[in-house]
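Q: Structure tokens for this one, please.
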Amino acid sequence: MSDTDTTKLPEITIKMPDFIQTERIKIPYAKFVMHPHYAIKELLGQNITIVDYNVNDIITNDDCHIIDVRYKSIKFSPYAIYYIPVDKIKRIIPDSNTYGFALNGCNVMLTSSQLGDYAKTIPLKIYAKSVDNHSVNGQLDVLFPYFATPAKNPLNKFMTPIKYPNYNCLPFEVEPEPKQYPDSYKPILKSIDETLAAYKSDLQRFPLFKHIDNIAKANEFKDCAIYTPTTTAYLIDFNKIPLDKDLNGVIAITDNRHPDFVLYFPTFSFILTTEELRSLKSFMESEKVRYYNYHYIMSMNKK
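A: Here is the predicted structure, written as tokens:
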């Protein structure tokens, strides 16, 4: 990694799947028919990218349209891992450990002593900087609106009721990343016992589960019975959970797991809608591809 001027960072282009959110909104009829996109962005934010929208046939009593909008609002997905060639990362402040690269037209800062751990490719997660995150060089928040950290674990945590960072959201879609591994590739997976132990260890991190005193292994969804009072959660392969009907319960997903297994807590206090379940299905599918990609690329990345 060599010293460089910030204006000469080599450009990297990586096509990554989008994180697409869905929202149902209500817009006055007159405003919508004049400028549909403007009216939608006025509610959802000027920085969103509208994928598509569907206008429902009903007009409300107060002369409003009900519109379902699919949109993107995040430049870099907080779940994705971006594999950056080592030789594309350049020092941006002389005699320091501050580095940078340009990805898809955006400058990203990386400050880490861990860069030496990687021979060819660095797996990174990319985040937007906080507005009050000022650096010693006052211009860096303008030149580098994003920062990256090395990804040590390809999997992510998740929990229902569905919440997106800083936002309670309706159903979403997470498309799997492009597969980087051959079909014959089989990574080492955590055992079911290891996954069960991980969920037991993480249980206190989930406030809704604080009164659970037992986690059982469920071979089929029918094993996940609701008792009153409910004190048992179930470790289950997500593929065994039915997606064609609303369910009573909560699902938690830890990042220290077999990629297929989740913790299901049956309770009448919460409803998992079919839309939420399909969102979770897209999340789990993308997580599995991400897990395989990560371990395959890292196995090729030894010094």
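A few notes: The first strand starts at residue 11 and ends at 12. Residues 77 and 191 are 28 Å apart (CA to CA).
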